[in-house]
Write a structure and sequence with these properties.
The complex is a heterodimer of chains A (223) and B (658). Chain A is built from 12 helices and 2 strands. Chain A has 223 residues and is mainly alpha-helical. In chain A, strands 1-2 form a two-stranded antiparallel ribbon. Chain B has 658 residues and is an alpha+beta fold. The radius of gyration of chain B is 32 Å and the shape is globular. The chains are: A mainly alpha (223), B alpha+beta (658). At the A-B interface, β1 and β2 of A face β21, β23 and α15 of B.
Chain lengths: 223, 658
């Protein structure tokens, strides 16, 4: 398939804003173009729907404010359609994460970053989706949105999904009165696995990995 | 002659065009060389002339003899047909040549070039352009041929042809004069014909030809080209040399069983009408199950009038292990053969497959080969899916083509090469050694569903002075998602030693196992199991490849990017823009009507984009300090510049479409 995104383009030497660019891994035939237009329409409607819902639930006003994590958590819950291959082919996902910005209206967090442009799989809406994979109880107790971005940005955590699964199991974090524990835990995990130039955590059995993560956890919560 | 010029012609003012005959002859010879070589061309044209002149359609009483004769000062290769009409007709003058030649004027047609008259209502002649005789001249070290003919009425005629700077003169002598001339010119080595027929003599044949005759290759060429008339009509074709008399036979390995046997699988279709109304007499396809067959018989031979023209190569679709075992032929009804002739190359070795008839026949052969392979040869792929896949390759073909041209003129973008990424870097004491992967297509990092990636193998090398304990892992992943682990083994290696080679493993791509399209990586990694650095990656090698997706383009142009040009810009077709690496991307306007016309079909769209890229390549070249495509003079006036640009683009498109 193909996905439409909107970009500023130079055409005939002039900068033109919001030009529709078709992203596809193959030549854009009429069939693909028409599919892309339908998908674009679908994304527009879906994001408008989410935006309206967030507005009605009074969550939209949290943007750029303390407690915004609730907004992004709720948005993330509604973005699971991106992972539904009957709606979005897996190979187009990366473009769809980027295309969501074009239709997000007031949900757009800020100006489109260079990172979102180049690596949409590590961009805002993808992280919203990742966040929504955890229980709200845990997310709520974990700190703020920035702490989650830091956590999800960490290469060691991205490379070994067992760490995210481990975190999801740790309901007792959710009960912790400690503020900002996620940021501290992220830094501790990074420190633990940064011992060598390059680590492969897969060498660790689940038990070994859990033991190391527990050690990080204990360090954070012992302070 | 056209009516326009006639009133302007004044005697004494007009001159003929002089032809450089040695150059012209070289052109003819080179064209044969490009096909199967001169010796092959000699036998094909000689027998073709003889078979065309046969008295009876099924060749009753017909024979053909090649004889290599050593004379006192010269060697002669004689090529004699019998059971034919002989070269009937008169010795023609220039005035005679202004009229259409009736079929009986065989001598006249043989002596002159490209004067043919198709016999109405008769079968389609094999030869038609009169070039064949020049391959005989080209096969003579002296560029001389002799010929004589004895007709049914007892008339004898002898003649010769040679080449000089601006001409290819001929001479002819009747009866006794001819016999005397023959004796004189061959020092009595050759005697006048005693049987009705025609003889063409190559004087001092070239070494290649003599070698082919003596080595038996010539005999194989005859069998391979003329197996149909040898089999069907028991045609007698003899090769005489050095006291040997060898009868040509179809090649033994061109065995055509009608039914499956232990060693052969057979696919026969008879009397089929195919789209376009063309009639197939017989398609006979055989696969030798014990392995590949000789290259000269591989594929399906398209037969015309009992002669093999060329083979349809099944390689477009079938894998080599099946492709190289297949041989056979297709015969057609006479009206379809007529259509074929229009598409046939002048040397009778090729077809122009853009022509409707022959294209339809090739398509039929491909479809049947696919059915055969699926039904009897254990091939699982769907040919329509493969065709769709080829269309997906259209973009890559266009990009590769324009980048190749850009490279040739020294305009480079990102680095070339098709090696899978990874590896390289510093030479480590403890390291992974990983041979090249085996891709479905050479020098192409793309794989598609249904295809295999082979030779996935690696070993651990310990060139350090210490005994090491490591874990070796080799696996395939997609964007970090593990697809499969080929090896995961703990090793203990002595100093200066290496592990066994793990593999080769094979990855077969399917939608179920590999739902994601795009870049996959084969990773081979050594992890330390030693106490002080457990878990450290000591070395890794990775090889990237692309599933159902084109690898990033290498060269000046990185990609084609479809863009919807907004109002005010909609008449623009597109333009080259700086790309993400050091090259350019072609940004094109999908709302332009020309694009809308091309977008229905990937092949058309690729060609459309190639044209745009070709134009932009000219522009980029002109922006260089020293353009490679344009001379100083080309840039002096806008008119000259545009003319040159058009010519260059024409060249590019010609190359692309050829």
């Amino acid at each position: 398939m193909a996905v439409i995104i909107r970009e500023d383009r130079i055409i005939a030497g002039q900068k033109v804003r919001g030009v529709k660019v078709y992203k596809a891994d193959r030549l854009l035939t009429r069939e693909l173009r028409e599919q892309a237009e339908k998908l674009d329409q679908f994304l527009a409607e879906k994001m408008k729907e989410i935006e309206e819902e967030m507005r009605k639930k009074d969550l939209l006003k949290l943007k750029n404010r303390r407690g915004v994590i609730k907004l992004w958590y709720e948005v993330g819950r509604r973005l699971s359609f991106v992972m539904d291959t009957s709606l979005v082919p897996a190979e187009d996902r990366k473009y769809v994460w980027r295309a969501l910005y074009d239709h997000a209206g007031d949900l757009v967090p800020r100006k489109l970053s260079e990172r979102a442009r180049k690596r949409p799989e590590n961009s805002h809406f993808k992280y919203c989706y990742e966040l929504a994979q955890f229980s709200w109880q845990l997310v709520k107790a974990s700190g703020n949105w920035t702490a989650w971005v830091e956590f999800l940005d960490s290469p060691v955590i991205r490379d070994d999904r067992r760490i995210i699964r481990w975190l999801a199991r740790k309901q007792k974090f959710a009960e912790s009165p400690k503020q900002d524990w996620l940021r501290m835990l992220t830094r501790e995990i990074r420190r633990t696995f940064k011992k060598f130039r390059k680590w492969d955590t897969s060498i660790l059995s689940d038990k070994e990995l859990d033991a190391r993560l527990e050690k990080s956890f204990n360090k954070v919560f012992a302070v | 002659m056209g009516g326009f010029i006639k009133p302007f012609l004044v005697a004494g003012e007009i001159r003929p065009t002089y032809i450089n005959w040695p150059g012209h002859l070289k052109g003819i010879v080179d064209a044969y060389e490009e096909h199967s070589g001169i010796p092959h061309g000699v036998q094909k044209d000689a027998i073709q002339n003889g078979w065309d002149a046969r008295k009876y359609k099924k060749g009753r009483g017909w024979s053909f003899v090649f004889e290599l004769t050593e004379g006192e000062a010269h060697t002669f290769l004689t090529m004699t047909d019998t059971g034919t009409h002989g070269l009937t007709g008169r010795i023609l003058t220039e005035e005679d040549m202004l009229e259409d030649l009736p079929p009986i004027e065989r001598w006249g047609r043989f002596e002159n070039l490209a004067f043919t008259k198709e016999p109405a209502g008769e079968s389609v002649p094999l030869g038609s352009r009169g070039r064949g005789k020049f391959i005989f001249v080209g096969a003579s070290k002296e560029n001389v041929i002799l010929y004589d003919s004895l007709r049914e009425d007892g008339a004898y005629r002898y003649g010769f042809r040679y080449i000089e700077r601006t001409g290819s003169p001929v001479a002819a002598y009747d009866e006794e004069r001819g016999k005397e001339k023959l004796a004189e010119m061959t020092s009595g080595t050759l005697q006048p014909l005693t049987e009705v027929g025609t003889r063409v003599v190559i004087v001092d044949p070239i070494e290649d030809l003599v070698h082919a005759i003596r080595s038996g290759e010539f005999s194989r060429y005859i069998g391979e080209t003329w197996w149909e008339i040898l089999t069907k009509y028991k045609a007698e074709i003899v090769l005489r040399h050095d006291g040997l008399d060898v009868k040509a036979t179809p090649p033994k390995d061109f065995f055509l069983p009608e039914e499956d046997t232990g060693e052969y699988r057979v696919w026969v279709k008879k009397h089929k009408r195919i789209p376009g109304g063309y009639k197939i007499k017989k398609l006979h396809t055989v696969s030798r199950r014990k392995g590949e067959v000789a290259p000269d018989i591989r594929g399906i031979s398209i037969q015309r009038g009992g002669m093999k023209i060329c083979c349809v190569d099944p390689s477009r679709y079938l894998p080599p292990e099946i492709r190289d075992t297949i041989y056979g032929y297709i015969t057609l009804d006479e009206s379809t053969e007529l259509g074929l002739r229009e598409a046939e190359g002048v040397e009778h070795y090729t077809f122009d497959f853009r022509k409707t008839t022959v294209n339809a026949i090739r398509q039929y052969i491909w479809n049947e080969m696919s059915e055969f392979a699926k039904a009897k040869l254990g091939w699982g792929a769907d040919i329509r899916e493969i065709r769709r896949r080829q269309q997906r390759n259209a973009e890559r073909l266009a990009l590769n083509a324009i980048n190749r041209i850009a490279r040739e003129i020294g305009l480079l973008g990102i680095g070339g090469g098709t090696k899978s990424g990874g590896g390289g870097g510093e030479w480590k004491e403890i390291r992974v050694q990983m041979p090249a992967l085996k891709f479905p297509r050479e020098r192409d990092l793309r794989v598609d569903y249904g295809e295999n990636l082979g030779n996935i193998s690696a070993r651990v090398v310990n060139a350090s002075e210490n005994r090491i304990k490591v874990r070796f892992k080799m696996y395939i992943h997609y964007s970090g998602k593990l697809i499969d682990t080929y090896v995961e083994k703990d090793l203990s290696l002595q100093p200066d030693s290496q592990s066994e080679m793990f593999g080769p493993y094979k990855e077969v791509f399917s939608k179920k196992r590999h739902p994601d399209k795009g870049r996959y990586t084969i990773m081979a990694r050594i992890l330390s199991l030693m106490e002080d650095n457990r878990g450290e990656v000591l070395d890794e090698k990775k090889k990237n490849f692309y599933l159902e997706e084109n690898p990033p383009a290498r060269g000046l142009f990185e990609k084609f990017e479809p863009v919807e040009y907004p109002e005010g810009y909609q008449k623009m077709i597109g333009e080259a823009m700086p790309g993400e690496s050091e090259g350019y991307k072609i940004q094109y306007n999908i709302t332009h009507p020309a694009c809308r016309v091309a977008e229905s079909n990937e092949t058309d769209l690729a060609e459309y984009l190639f044209r745009l890229a070709a134009h932009e390549l000219c522009r980029i070249d002109l922006l260089q300090e020293k353009p490679k495509l344009f001379e100083e003079a080309d840039r002096e006036t806008p008119d000259a510049l545009l003319q040159k640009t058009l010519r260059i683009i024409g060249d590019f498109i010609f190359t692309y479409l050829s």
